[in-house]
Design goal:
Blueprint: E1 9-13, H1 17-30, E2 35-39, H2 42-52, E3 56-59, H3 68-78, E4 83-88, H4 93-102, E5 105-108, H5 113-124
Parallel strand pairs: 1-2, 1-3, 3-4, 4-5
Length: 125
């Protein structure tokens, strides 16, 4: 079985439309064939992950409803092979530790070309 980076699915979960647009644009510039799904909160992200079984997920922490770490935990339980990157401006050590405990990595916002490159390295590493 070959690892084809052209046929991947990325789920972007962030209540900031601007953040979702930046992540989408940067990822599509590098991987134009990836299917990209967007959710504006954790509940929506969980529903999309159940429906589409994405390979990768970027997750904000502070969103309306549930915390992104809670949503990530549910998604990781249902799709153990998914790779999750937690993007957050909330850089408290407790959130970074929680991300690692879930099996995700933590990348501090703001979302930049460098932070997205870090996420892509983790996704494809």
């Amino acid at each position: 079985m070959t690892s084809d980076t052209n046929l991947k699915k990325l789920l972007i979960v962030d209540d900031s439309k601007v953040s979702r647009m930046i992540i989408r644009a940067r990822v599509q510039a590098v991987y134009p064939d990836w299917e990209i799904l967007e959710a504006s909160n954790g509940t929506e992200g969980i529903a999309l992950s159940q429906q589409h079984q994405p390979d990768f997920c970027t997750m904000d922490i502070n969103m309306p409803g549930m915390l992104g770490t809670e949503a990530a935990e549910i998604i990781l339980k249902e799709i153990p092979s998914i790779r999750v990157v937690i993007f957050s401006a909330n850089i408290q050590e407790s959130f970074q530790d929680r991300a690692l405990a879930l099996g995700a990595i933590f990348v501090a916002k703001p979302i930049t070309e460098k932070s997205i490159a870090e996420a892509l390295r983790y996704f494809l590493g």
